[in-house]
Amino acid sequence: MKTRAIYPGSFDPITNGHIDIIRRSLKVFDEVVVVVAMNLRKSAQKGSWFSPDERIALIREVFKGEKRVRVDLCDGLIMDYARKNKVDAVLRGLRAASDFESEFMMAAINRELNENVETFFMMTGKNLFFVSSTVLKEVAAFGGSIREYVPAPVWAAVKKKLKGGDFK
Ligand code: ADP
User: Do the Cβ atoms of 52 and 73 come closer than 8 Å?
Assistant: First the structure.
């Protein structure tokens, strides 16, 4: 039987930190579905740079050719998505102790909502513990280069947005 994990998040935009989690998780799961979740508080905020469709397109571009990675959108509860899509596990990444509190709460409520799906936490990759979409957007907005921390299609998209003064 094939195992399917979902990796929900805002991915605004996808970073090398996310990519590292996805690649390493493929050693354990047969299929990983990256789920751009619209019900996350963050994605509803004004600070978002990329629309859900743009985020999805960027993730697809990064994983083109990798059949075991799929990308999807979820505008409801992740646990309802999991129920409807035969999901075995939810993946989350942990960067620092500060991530723990909110992740712990979310895993606990998700288990209340759907006890058939387990949450798996993966430790951040080497030299990626300080990489978050939020911090990278701040750095880029003030003119810093974030090239090292994002895949090439994201860097190109960020440069385009900055040139066009396309901030929200
Ligand atoms: P961000 O906090 O970067 O805005 P998302 O909401 O898109 O992230 O995050 C989705 C998941 O990916 C979360 O579990 C988050 O902790 C994890 N994650 C994000 N960046 C990293 C990283 N650099 N290393 C490990 N996990 C990460």
Answer: yes
